[in-house]
Amino acid sequence: xxxxxxxxxxxxxxxxxxxxxxxxxxxxxxxxxxxxxxxxxxxxxxxxxxxxxxxxxxxxxxxxxxxxxxxxxxxxxxxxxxxxxxxxxxxxxxxxxxxxxxxxxx
Length: 106
Hints:
The protein is of the alpha+beta class. Helix content is 35%, strand content 30%. It has a single domain (2-100), classed as 2-Layer Sandwich (Nucleotidyltransferase, domain 5), CATH 3.30.420.10. It has three helices and four strands, in the order βββαβαα. A hairpin with a 5-residue loop joins β2 (16-24) and β3. The model has no long low-confidence stretch (mean pLDDT 83).
């Protein structure tokens, strides 16, 4: 079972966000990682992009079982809700929901 952890960082002087994460196997060994810059947005947007990229990487690596961790209950609640096309983060939430609908156990 792979474990995807992600975090976000913000440079307040420039208001640029980055998101990154690691993917570990069930033994805790590193299986991949990523770092992406987000030119504008918010902490919530960075967290959502981190989850999306983590899911993409895990899927490309053939992961079938996944534990997704986030330190943001707000973001987890957004992901658990039925997608709302009028939500300000509808595009990235739709991408996450499409990734979660793949044939794996999350």
